[in-house]
Design goal:
alpha/beta; Rossmann fold; seven-stranded mixed sheet; 11 helices; about 20% strand; binds S-adenosylmethionine
Length: about 290
């Protein structure tokens, strides 16, 4: 399934960083950051109640679009929570990630859940998709791995090569407009942090004393990279009324009140204008 190592680059990326060294260094920063948190990523950092709520939305969206038995790819699988859940629901999953630490966690999870025969696990960054062979019914990516892609058009071109006509992409992507985040940091006088999502291009975001190079998107900015080969089926806000996951302590103090906000997300998150905001957005595209 995997061919020898190569990195895909669009012409834009070649113009920005002709020999690729800057992007390579940034990818390694991001890899180190996620390796450093992989051992405890299922704790509050990677899977609290607010994350789980968004996770279920992606699970059910994929399940509504693709029949069980479909062969799907997880881009940026983290510790494999989604990959194993989809295997449990009857899908064949190829789980990929750029962090060797995360990949080790996914392998272990697949083994201990006794679903290893339904989950293939490959250490593979989204910038290396040219190494992958095969035809897939769909791909999903949860909680922002594609925000770490430094050359999204090149990733989109590989998705187009790998997903069969009629197949789907279901991605949850970190959005640009998160009212909760702006209010939270402005109240604390952290104005630069409040505006981090306004940055153009890849911006350094700290995690665990490391750097994740992150690009933020409006849904339409994100879709632009995929528009040549994929039709836009749908998109919606995730955690617009609910606070972002790092504010889970607020939720824990008054869960009933925040569950009401969660129900607003469910009811209104796909409305025009509202769907362009939120901590993340969930976007569904279909291969032409
Ligand atoms: C916020 S975590 C989400 C993990 C997982 N999808 C989940 O739902 O828990 C982001 C993941 O993206 C991975 N990642 C970062 N850059 C990547 C890249 N260039 N290619 C593939 N995966 C990447 C990280 O290693 C990390 O596992």
């Amino acid at each position: 399934m995997l061919e020898s190592s190569t990195q895909d680059l669009s012409t834009d990326a070649l113009a920005r960083d002709p020999d690729g060294t800057r992007d390579q260094a940034r990818l390694l920063d991001t890899q180190r950051a996620f390796d450093s948190v992989a051992p405890d990523y299922d704790g509050p950092r990677g899977n609290n109640e607010l994350i789980q709520r968004m996770r279920v939305t992606l699970w059910n969206t994929v399940q509504n679009l693709l029949p069980t038995g479909s062969h799907i790819v997880d881009l940026g699988c983290g510790t494999g929570l989604d990959a194993v859940e989809f295997a449990r629901r009857g899908y064949r999953v190829l789980a990929t990630d750029w962090s060797p630490g995360m990949i080790a966690r996914t392998r272990e999870r697949a083994r201990t859940s006794e679903l290893a025969d339904k989950v293939d696990v490959e250490h593979l960054g989204v910038q290396e998709l040219a190494r992958l062979e095969g035809s897939f019914d769909g791909m999903y990516s949860n909680f922002g791995p594609l925000n770490c892609a430094l050359d999204l058009p090149a990733v989109a071109a590989q998705c187009a090569r790998l997903v069969r006509p009629g197949g789907v992409l279901v991605f949850s992507v970190i959005g640009r407009i998160c009212p909760w985040e702006v209010a939270h940091y402005v109240r604390r006088g952290r104005f630069r942090r409040a505006m981090v999502r306004a940055a153009r291009g890849a911006t350094p975001v700290g995690m665990n004393k490391h750097t994740i190079w992150t690009r933020y998107y409006l849904p339409r900015e994100f879709y632009r990279a995929f528009a040549g080969a994929f039709a836009l089926d749908d998109y919606r806000a995730l955690s617009l009324f609910m606070p972002p996951p790092y504010l889970v302590d607020r939720y824990r103090r008054r869960p009933e009140r925040y569950e009401r906000l969660g129900r607003l997300d469910d009811a209104l998150g796909a409305w025009p204008l509202l769907r362009d905001m939120g901590d993340h957005f969930l976007i569904v595209m279909r291969r032409r």
